[in-house]
Input
Amino acid sequence: MKYLINSVLQRYQKCLQHFKHLDGMAALALRIYLVPIFWMAGQNKLMHFNDTVEWFANPDWGLGLPFPTLMAILATSAELGGAILLALGLFTRLISIPLIITMLVAILTVHLPNGWQAIADAHAPFANAQVLASTEKLEKAREILQNYGNYDWLTSSGSFVILNNGIEFAATYLIMLLALLVLGGGRYLSLDYWLSQSLNRFNK
Output
């Protein structure tokens, strides 16, 4: 039995050797997925910079953070710069750190009070009281649209939903960034890899 297990493990390890040159694909997939997310977020902050500063500053309807102008500059720079560096696979681990901080701030200050779900769905796991309350709003909205709007056209590309704005998406991006912090830019498909190769040849 022990011989059989060892034989299977050895075959498995040999099989993995054939895929070792593709291990950069996972990092590339994470990077490409995150690029448009952070680029669009950064662009939105930049295009409405004064509104962003007010939102960072206001304790009533915003985040109530200190030094709001500085915070807005840092967040905007991290997202725009991060999108560019992730696209290139350059300084991937380094840029992941401020982006992780940005996601943590977003989770703790914006999304956490709304629970887990990004989209209100009373039948999904972790549905909180806010999500359950949204069910009545959703049904009422559907009734209005069915009676007074072109409901079939409005829902032709997907169901009508209510945004819950929970931590779901931000937490997903945070996990992806943590993975990039470990993986780096990835083999062959990032400038990080080729920069590392050049430095290794230079140091020999």
Summary: The mean pLDDT is 90. Residues 22-115+166-203 form one domain.
